[in-house]
Amino acid sequence: MLDQGAAPPATENMAPKPSGLAALMRRKPVERLVEEGGQGEGGSLRRTLSMWQLTMISIGATLGTGIFVVLGEAVPLAGPAVTVAFVFAGLTALFSALSYAELAGTIPVAGSSYSYAYATMGEVVAWICGWCLLLEYGVSVAAVAVGWGDYLNELLDGTIGVTLPAALSAPPGDGGIFNLPALIVVMLAMIFLLGGAKESARANTIMVVVKIAALVLFCTIGFMGFKAGNYSDFMPLGATSIGAAGAILFFSYIGFDAASTAGEEAKNPKRDLPRAIMLSLVIVTALYVLVAAVAVGAWDWKKFEGSEASLAAIMNDVTGQSFWGTLLAAGAVISIASVVLTVLYGQTRILFAMSRDGLVPKVFGKVNPKTGTPRVNTVIVSLFCGILAAAVPLGELVNATSIGTLFAFALVNIAVVVLRYTKPGLDRSFKVPFGPVFPVLGFLCCGYSMYSLDMITWVYFGIWMAVGLVVYFVYGMRRSRLATAEK
């Protein structure tokens, strides 16, 4: 037994193991997180991603199905003031983006908010955050992949007049037997990811450029039918309508944190990660506002209510031809594929970090020495998400991804404040302005958005959290590297 008055042992293996509450709150030092960066079982991740590629990863994960369908929900709530609602939602996301930017530049590792929580609030909070991210990334990949089949059918119908049968383009419970397109798009993303982070980033950059071009094309065509009279009554439903629409539109910004999962594959993470996160948010916000402004200018806002409003429908109405809508459907197919690729990438990197810490099986941390990618991890996650999308009706579970994301955002805002006070001397390449004010505002915005969600969403979230805690206490708590003092 150690002498109570003796100095602490110098080696980690001899350190006394905490128990009870102390075990739950054990934290992983920032220095150790950074030191272990990139290292995995059998190899290491490769630093190949530039600032622009990181930016494209964030845009790829954010700019997806939302802008193609969200106007039909938001415009009836705010009218022409939907453009202001987009700005309001963007500012709400900005507070959390600033916190992500500071922590990504300070702790440039693959685990994103999971790792930030581990360094600041302890292991059990980190596990909860990681469990939320598994819900966010895993289910959202499946949900987005399901939507890919709808746009693919629209594209096929507009080009060759053929569509896939319902039995092969929808999961059970939604009128089908097996959603083959959903499985295909996930498998295509897997193939890109297995080739390496650099190759995946290049493919994603091309897809992001295409979907931005599709939105610019919509703005060009839509401006031809622009009617200034549609803005004569800018705020017909009152100022409060902007907040209501903004709460819905906030979820169109989810995904900007994807670049933070690439912390161990960025060439210059301390400089490039904060820039990529902020730049992606600015670009996405500008595109959202521009598209919304043109859409309302081309269509009277009252036409959106109760209609099948979409960007394709507006283009067809302005031009009187279905060709442009078909072209936009092609852009949507590529857009959704980009989201699947980038979100699947983020999922594998978070599991990689959790595996390295011993909280999930080691197989997720094995890196292929030839490609520098967690190959087995990528195959397992892709097969799981692909089968989930193709054969399981997701239903309300999709909405639970929103609350899981907001919870992770809230923890990141807290982590910034905690790290400022516990590690004031850390080298920070970017700092959130106005001290703790902006992180607190970010936390409050996330809390408000969570509060506005339906009760059924909270129920599913509670069930998911309960399962996660059981897994942690049965498996992760005892196998944690901090618990075993394994180097």
From TrEMBL:
Keywords: Membrane, Transmembrane, Transmembrane helix. It is found in: Membrane. GO terms for cellular component: membrane. The keyword Translocase does not apply. PANTHER family: CATIONIC AMINO ACID TRANSPORT INTEGRAL MEMBRANE PROTEIN ROCE-RELATED, INNER MEMBRANE TRANSPORTER YGJI-RELATED. GO terms for molecular function: amino acid transmembrane transporter activity. InterPro entries: AA/rel_permease1 (IPR002293), AA_transporter (IPR004758). The keyword Nucleus does not apply. The chain crosses the membrane at residues 54-75, 81-103, 124-148, 177-196, 208-228, 234-256, 277-299, 323-346, 376-394, 400-421, 433-451, 457-475. This is Amino acid transporter. Pfam families: AA_permease_2. It is a multi-pass membrane protein.
